[in-house]
Request: fold
Amino acid sequence: MIPFYLVSMGLLAKPSLYLSDFFECNRSRYYDALTQVRVSNDLIHWVRFFLNGVAQTATKGREVFGQILTLRTEVEQSVLTMGKRAPSARLALNLLYRKPIIEATDLEQALKVSTPTANSLINALIDKQIVVEITGQQRSRVYSFDRYINLFVS
Reply:
């Protein structure tokens, strides 16, 4: 609710400041701060805790965004070396940023390509270490853009 309030007040353009993770990681301090307000009417303690959370969350968000830009540049450079597959691979990358866990059928539908073309493109992305197969199966395989996903894991 806090990010939506900040958006409604014009302090954020989008609800991109997610404090829930900060509150979860600092659960005991969170409850202590709330107790201080309830028991001692110490709102300053809560405000300091909250603003510290905003600062840490914003800093982490900025760092992750920088890492995404670095990864994007690196992966784009890798895709440019794929010759005639490069345009399709760039479209596949756009899909992977929106949906970092995919199946071949996702590429077929999004890129409007045949099954063999989608599988060939996935194999090329595996060779470039952009995606990894995560099921270990021969059929209904699922692929993950792990390097991207890992940027969001604390």
